[in-house]
Amino acid sequence: FKTDAAEAAGQADRASRAFEAAKAKSDDAEEKLKEAQAEADEAVAQLREAEAAMQEATKAHKDAANHQVGGRARVDQAAEAVVTAEEDLESAKAKAKEADAKRKEEE
Asked: The whole model's pTM is what?
């Protein structure tokens, strides 16, 4: 009996130590899991910030492109106005020459 009891006590002691070791490993793994989850949460937050920054940059790029298109249209309109003004000036000069020529003939 004593041998069986001693053997059972030894097995119980080994089982208890094995349980404590397994519990320590489990606690360590749980802590590592919490750390990994915190890192993953931080990475997700950084990803969201990067996505927001990308959306802002895309909007700014679109706005700049729209301003550039508008600026080009205004330049085209101004160039057209210059051409029209030059044509009007040439026409006015021609009429002035004709008027001068008529006055000279009438004199």
From this structure: 0.52
- Of the candidates 60, 88, 58, 66, the one whose C-alpha atom is nearest the C-alpha of residue 74 is 66
Q: 77 exposed, middle or buried (CB, 10 Å; 0-12, 13-18, 19+)?
A: exposed
Tokens at 9, concatenated: 């006590």
Cβ count near 48 (within 10 Å): 10
pLDDT, position 31: 96
Token readout for 38 is 């915190």
| pLDDT 10s digits, 13-59 | 999 999 999 999 999 999 999 999 999 999 999 999 999 999 999 99
User: What's the half-sphere exposure (Cβ side, CA atoms, 13 Å) at 61?
Assistant: 6
Q: Position 51: which residue type? A: E
Distance separating alpha carbons of residues 38 and 21, to the nearest angstrom: 26
Distances in whole angstroms, Cα of residue 58 to Cα of each of 47, 53, 66, 69: 16, 9, 12, 16
Report residue 107 as tokens: 């004199």
Residue 1 has pLDDT above 70, yes or no: no
